[in-house]
Amino acid sequence: MPKLKSKLPDVGTSIFTVMSKMAQEHSAINLSQGFPDFEVSKELIGLVNKYMSNGFNQYAPMPGVPALREQIGVMLKSRFNYYADPDTEITITSGATEALFNTITALISPDDEVILFDPAYDSYAPVIRLSGGIPMHLTLKQPDFSINWDEVEQKVTSQTRMIIINTPHNPTGSILTGEDMRRLDKIAMQHPNLLILSDEVYEHIIFDNFTHASVLRYPALADQSIAVFSFGKTFHATGWKVGYVVAPADIMAEIRKVHQFVTFSVNTAVQLAIAEYLKTESNYTQLPAFYQQKRDLFLGQIKDSGFIPIPCHGTYFQSLSYQEISNRPDMEMAEYLTKTHSIASIPISAFYKNRRDDKILRFCFAKNEETIEKAAKILCRI
């Protein structure tokens, strides 16, 4: 066998794959990996079927179907008062993960420093390293998992090429506010060569009357930013792997150079179906209330348990501290719950470079009421 030199020698199988496999092996309720267990809209599925039946089954244009890019442009203008040229500033990708990969690969060169915030979604750092960049890990402040902007200002140097933010935040459910964006805007203005990669895949899943603080709401900041979104999260269709990226034309030109050699294009019929479905705003504007009801149901059902909820203002993940229940490390606790109590979660330490363990587990509540209630009963018995 030929000798191999791994580019990611310390990267193993994703924690999501590990816990979902364990859940399946032990017939556990899977609240680990973030996917809904309820149906996609029958109307949306019907639209996909319509376009497939009408012959739209060949390659889409590399940047995406024009109708979808144009409808995204309409939505961005309505939501953020931001104009994005559908021809040059919007690209449809095979999920948000591809958009993140394309962006980092296109824009990060060897020895470029990239600031990210732990606990961080696990795809960021490996892609930075694959591109020869240097991940610079900062830690979110507890208990609210907020960013220490004074620390960020001190960390930005001439080597800093990019800052990655994520709001609403996976895994903690925290959000960035207008004040956060103003601090980030100030930093960006002081460093005109700095790029901001904003992971906004849970943009529509935000609670408690908060407004999503997109980088696109801030004109000067948007000029230095790349925003990534996900239709899979929005329309409960994670398996369709359709997302999009928005960026100024000169930046997008570089991102598309990578995109064309990663997937080239995305499912044509699905794009056309989403374009038509987006024309009815209520298909996405009702999501905050829809998911807040599920969050509140989950929290209400576990209020008498020994678990302590971490405030969650967005995403469909609820983090729970178990420090009053057990001293087990969080990975061990996650395994114990899965194998012994038939409920699977994600240990938060998996999102830290240093594997910091605060005795917190993440649970996905994007489930039907029966699943939520069944899972809560188990947690209340522990």
Which structural traits does this protein have?
single chain; Aspartate Aminotransferase, domain 1; Aspartate Aminotransferase, domain 2; seven-stranded mixed β-sheet; four-stranded antiparallel β-sheet; 15% strand; globular
Offer a quick outline of the entry.
The chain is α/β, with parallel strands linked by helices.
Topology summary:
Blueprint (H helix, E strand, L loop, with lengths): L14 H11 L3 E2 L11 H12 L12 H15 L9 E4 L1 H13 L5 E6 L5 H7 L3 E6 L9 H7 L4 E7 L11 H13 L4 E5 L19 H4 L2 E6 H4 L8 E4 L2 H14 L5 H10 L4 H4 L1 H15 L6 E2 L7 E5 L8 H12 L1 E2 L1 E2 L12 E5 L4 H13 L1
Parallel strand pairs: 1-11, 3-4, 3-5, 5-6, 6-7
Antiparallel strand pairs: 2-8, 7-8, 9-10, 10-13, 12-13
Family: Belongs to the class-I pyridoxal-phosphate-dependent aminotransferase family.
Keywords: Aminotransferase, Pyridoxal phosphate, Transferase
InterPro entries: Aminotransferase_I/II_large (IPR004839), Kynurenine-oxoglutarate_AT (IPR051326), PyrdxlP-dep_Trfase (IPR015424), PyrdxlP-dep_Trfase_major (IPR015421), PyrdxlP-dep_Trfase_small (IPR015422)
